[in-house]
């Protein structure tokens, strides 16, 4: 039963880090769309990438306290983020282009869906503790 409060604390830390990443994400999105430099879908994707940079550093250190080497964690983070990127694209395109929703409302819905994917992907794979190899009795020299 101690696992549930620990999971809740970790998710709360993730949400705090996510707020910082969302600030960057939404700032880039709004800046690109409002200045006419990008349509809402491209702006959302650019914002997603900028937020991902913030998310990696803070989540590695604060949320998951991971000791996984950067060389391993960064490509894993990239895979999870790429799936989230694809989900963001699908949701934003469907809601803004398909249903005509305002881009910020669509982004809020996309964020709500993607946040759970990213948390679980990073918890269970990106920043998870590395498995410890088990030596056979003969290989360890112990009897």
Automatic annotation (TrEMBL):
Transmembrane annotation, as ranges: 12-33, 45-62, 74-95, 101-120
What are the GtrA/DPMS transmembrane domain coordinates in residue numbering?
A: 14-127
Its annotated compartments are: Membrane
Annotated coiled-coil segments of the chain: none
- Extract the signal peptide range: none
UniProt entry keywords in alphabetical sequence: Membrane, Transmembrane, Transmembrane helix
Q: Which GO terms describe its cellular component?
A: plasma membrane
One Pfam entry name: GtrA_DPMS_TM
Q: Which GO terms describe its biological process?
A: polysaccharide biosynthetic process
- How does this protein sit in the membrane? Multi-pass membrane protein
Keyword 4Fe-4S part of the UniProt annotation? no
What does the sequence similarity comment in the record state about its family? Belongs to the GtrA family.
Q: Which protein are we looking at? A: Polysaccharide synthesis protein GtrA
Which organism is this entry from?
Methylobacterium variabile
């Amino acid at each position: 039963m101690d696992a549930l409060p620990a999971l809740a604390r970790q998710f709360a830390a993730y949400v705090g880090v996510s707020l910082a990443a969302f600030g960057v994400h939404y700032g880039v999105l709004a800046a690109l769309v409002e200045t006419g430099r990008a349509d809402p879908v491209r702006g959302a994707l650019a914002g997603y990438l900028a937020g991902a940079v913030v998310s990696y550093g803070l989540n590695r250190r604060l949320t998951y306290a991971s000791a996984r080497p950067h060389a391993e964690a960064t490509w894993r983070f990239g895979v999870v983020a790429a799936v989230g990127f694809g989900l963001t694209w699908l949701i934003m395109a469907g809601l803004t282009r398909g249903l005509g929703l305002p881009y910020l409302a669509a982004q809020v819905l996309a964020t709500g869906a993607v946040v759970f994917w990213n948390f679980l992907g990073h918890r269970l794979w990106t920043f998870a503790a590395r498995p410890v190899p088990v030596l056979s009795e003969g290989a360890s020299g112990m009897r």
